[in-house]
Fold this protein.
Amino acid sequence: MLDNSISSTHVTPRRARGTARHGHALALLLLGALGPAAGCSDDELALENELALETPVEAAAQELTSIPTIPDEALQKTLAPLRALEVPGRVYMKSVEETFAGSGTFSQVVHVYQPDANGETIRFELAAKTSTGQVDTSHGFQSVKVTSRPGESDEIQQTQPNSSGQRVYDVPGSRQGWYRFELTYVAPNAGRTLSFRAYDASGNSLKIVWVDPPSAAAQVRAKVAVDASASPVFLKGGAYRNTDPSQFAYADNVKVNGNLLYRRGFDQGQYNFPLGQLNAAEHTLEFSLAASAYDPAKFWFGVSEKSFARAAAKASWDRVQFLYQGAMRTGDYDAWSEGVAFAQGATVVNGVRPPPVRRGTTFSVAVEDSSLNGTQNATVRIISDATGAEVSWAKSLPAEGDYRGGIFANGAFSSRNREHWRVTVPSDAPVGRYYARAFTPWGARIGQDVVFYVIHNPYPLVASGAISKAELETYGYDEDEDGVNLNGGYGSDQDNIRDHFTVLYEWSPPYDVQRKLTGAFRRTTDESKFSFLDHAVAAAQGTTSEIETMRRLYRLVTQRYRYSQPTNQGDVSNIFLGDGLDPAESLQYAKPNSQLSWEDGIGGVQCYDYAPVLASIARSAGVLSRVVSSDGNLGGWGNHFFTEAYIPSVPHHGGKTQNSSSAPNSDTVPWYVFDATNPDASGSVPYQYLWERYSEAIAPQAQYGKAVFVLSGYKPRGTTTNTVTWDPLGPTDDIGADDVLSLQAAYESGPDFWLTQSGVTGILGRGEKDVYRISKATTGARAVSVSTVPGGGNTLQPVLCVGPYVDPNGPPAEDEPGMSPRWNVSVPARCADRATTYPLPEGESYVVVFHDHGQPDDAYPDSEDRMKLGDSVQYVLNLQY
């Protein structure tokens, strides 16, 4: 795709709603349930009249004045193509030869730059020759096309005649700019060499910059020009198969002027080989391309003076250098550039971008030192930053990775002894920060430490059938798996970009749509600041499961934000990363018994901001996540937004689907609620009106949905998220029910959580109310008790209230036209006799587990006391007989 500027992405202004929203009480208006359009807003309404809960009120929906726009600069960074048609400089290819080991019919594309604007005739020359240089006329050139200024508004395409053996195609009246030459090469004989060059009427070579050779094993030979004066030169490209660890695709045996520089160092992804400083002259570049299979496979390559580093500052690999392997599946993170960790370093500071690797994958480290002479090898150690100790990970040095290579320095070849080590990250390795450290055979340090990150790996979920590939690529991570065609169609996976975005669907259909750019994998704001990846890994340091990681990230986001009016920015990284929070602080505030002060927290946020930011930072850590939109009541708010994360290790909440200890467990859906919005809001509402709020929660979908019914008598309304086919850059007008993924059934009619025996455990957030159903007659219990689980946290105090069972399938108590039906409320307020042990009444009951803040009902939350924000504990319910 051409690197043109990207047009502004502006979401259509919100439509005014003509129908007033109705509610059952002033309390619900305070909770936002009646519909300030800001959803989880916290109106500071006067309470002098102390209206009863049953007093009906009416409020027109207050509309936000605008929907956030994603900044163009941030969007361009996210949608940046793997390679662009930039005007070439002093380094380019003059001709390319490709010798194919096999026969077949192949496609070839070459991009050439014409620097002159004199309208002269330019020529494209093709030839198919034997190993002795004889033209093989049985080899044909078909479907030949020449496109001037491809991808631009004045693009012109010409179809050329078929030919065979050797042919020069004249294009008169050339225009300054890019030309794309493409053909189908019919090769009935193996071992033939296809050559290509382009030149003007005077015989001067045009500048070949990008070549997409056929998907076949090939030996490449190119004439490289360095004009005017000596220059750094880089061979950059991509070799793709399908990122399966059992497959391979790579470039190998890179030589310049007959000197071996590099062996295979990258696999199934982008690569970047610095050739060094070449004198002004014509040079011969050679390398091979190979893959484990070729249907599909994809290769492309180019030569230029531009490095993979910012400002071309990195002219060679470091002595300990991380190289990308496609099976790592982190290439879309901006720590990588053309397959190299281009800003690696020994510590996590601004300007260093540690490369991320996934649990259960293998990464490559190139070690360079004169002591590595082929008979003695380096020692590579991996050090855990959390413990300071070496970890016992499997390491290997393939035979082809132990070699004498080199690089050109000041125009002369300089030999280098290199080893390309492979290191396997165990599938149960703790998430966090690690260091690669290399030593000479006699124990001296080689270079400096290289810090890298280990994150979660959702790909085994696809392999097991737990999730679809489309779900992974929408809610988790999507990397192009078979290369991308410049100015053409993408690979077979369509290189989707949905993983870079989240979306909010506000109100009922047709929805007001708010697209959010997440910044989960690429920095979209200040390049010098830390990224979501830096903060996610710091906060999750040492965790070994998705639930542990999410509990940390959830607390960090809750602590980071200070509830007030919604900022609601299009690029969610703007606000979270805006004031330079250090990753060390993220680790601190992700754990209990620490608080980010009111002054240091970021103000101006509501659920519009909590939800997409938590989804973004979760994706950065390798956890699938999505934003869920609610048109009413969930969390005890009006229209509301929260995060779901995919937790494969369910159950984490006990309870049975039926009133039997032998019934299946209710907690079987891996999509888990992580609602980080502060239920106290701005602190302007006394506790007596906050009972129905239960955000700041970690719960199964069904249990989170049951709570609103038990606490308020209402049912969830309009619960949705985006589909796996939504287009984040598509239209936002007239988005209806068929355009979203409904989660209504999961939240409204999911299973009950029956208490049938002792030992039922759950996770409780600060504002959460977990709801269980129990029958005294069936269990024979006289009471139920709750306590925290040893090692499960102790900063919250779970207590119980018990209310009568209300049948959600029975007739509602209130069912007026134009209003949501309402059933009798089981537990309408915090019970005065709440306790850790609560007696069971006769019949069936609801048991509500919640954290007791310990304040009187007429007290106001202390907005400066943030010590417990984001805390969660594990509790256990036991029956007393």
Residues 1-38, 43-65 have pLDDT under 50 and may be disordered. The chain is about 10% helix and 35% strand. The longest strand covers residues 412-424.
